[in-house]
Amino acid sequence: MRQVNHNREVSGIKRLSRDNWWLVLALVIMVLLFISSSQTYKQQTSVPFLERWLANEPFKQLLSGISFKYVGQEVSIASSGYFKFIEFFIRKGAHFGSYFLIGLGGYMGYKNRIKQTGLTMIVVWLAATGYAALDEFHQSLTGGRTPLFQDVLLDATGALTAIILAWLFTKFWQHRSKKAA
């Protein structure tokens, strides 16, 4: 009987340790976002890199047909040029992706601490969304940056997507494990 309890304790420690690594992932992303928000657009633009590595402007003809409005401004190659157009998608992808990782790390890190799955999902999503709002506020204090509510929505969507996918994957994995046993 004592051996069983010891194995459960060791298993619990391993799970807690794994959970902590997920939280470390989320924290590292949050620190990187804070640093990024402290930089002006000029300090972090990827246009010079894109000009160097995409000098032949691949898929320009295909991408030239894409045009839409974001925050009341036209996003197209015609309005901003090829490299700024590509950078727009990189920057918005970084918004979605970084908050995806925060949502994933938060959910995986807290799912064993907060025993109610729905509550875990809501708390992690609200925390990620709140951090996104604070990050946009931080950008407002940085010269040459424009805080956007639409970016908070994009960030919140990235976090929510990760939380839902992690929950689905966890459910699938648990169901598969039960079938194998």
TrEMBL record:
Leader sequence residues: none
Keywords: Membrane, Transmembrane, Transmembrane helix
InterPro entries in the cross-refs: Phosphotransbutyrylase, VanZ-like
Keyword Transcription: no
Name this protein carries in UniProt: VanZ family protein
Membrane-traversing stretches: 21-41, 93-110, 117-134, 154-173
Record carries keyword Kinase: no
Domain VanZ-like, residue spans: 22-169
